[in-house]
Amino acid sequence: MDATPRWLNPEEKAAWDSFIRMQETLVGRLSRYIQAESGLSASDFVVLVSLTERGGGRMRFLELAKLLEWEKSRASHQVTRMTKRGLVAKEDCPEDGRGAFVVATPAGYEAIEEAAPPHVEQVRRLFVDALTPHQLSTLGNLSQRVLTHMEKLPD
C-alpha cells in the first residue's frame, strides 16, 4: 500500500506554484517571440543550440534526446521535421550500425545565428533584467542544486 502523500504546506505550495507559473510564462513568451522573429519553433531552437553550442555541430541522436530530456519518439519526430526543412541532417554512425548522428547543416547554422541575438535580448529583458546580480547568482545556485539532487534520484 502507498504511503500517505507528503502534501505541500502553504509556503511550499506558493513557491512551487510561482516557480511553475514563471517557467511556463517565460518559456511561452520566448517561444512565441522566437517563432515570430525567426520562424523557428522552440523545439527547433533548442535542438540547434544543443548541436552548435554543446555538440560542435553534431551529436549522437540518443545523446541529444537525453540532453533535452525528451522521449526518443519526440526527438525522432523533431529531427525528422527539421531534416525536411534542411536545418539538420542525419548521418549513420560508422562504429555502431544502429546509432546515428544529428548534424546541423549550413542552413541550421544560419538559422540559429539569426535567431540567437533577438532571443538573448528577450531573455535579458524578461529574465535577467528582473533580478539583481546577487539574485541571479542565487537563482543559478538553487537551480543547480535541484538539478544535482534530481541526478541522484531514479527517473
What does this structure look like?
InterPro entries: HTH_MarR-typ (IPR000835), MarR/SlyA-like (IPR039422), WH-like_DNA-bd_sf (IPR036388), WH_DNA-bd_sf (IPR036390). One of its GO terms (biological process) is response to stress. Residues 1-148 form the HTH marR-type domain. The chain is mainly alpha-helical and 155 residues long. The chain has one domain (37-152): Arc Repressor Mutant, subunit A, CATH 1.10.10. The chain contains 6 helices and 3 strands, in the order H-H-E-H-H-E-E-H-H. The protein has helices at 10-38, 42-54, 61-68, 72-84, 106-126, 133-152; strands spanning 58-60, 88-93, 96-104. It has a 3-stranded antiparallel β-sheet. Helix 1 (10-38) packs across helix 5, helix 2 crosses helix 5 and helix 3 crosses helix 4. The chain is globular and about 50 Å long. The protein starts with 9 loop residues before the first helix and ends with a helix.
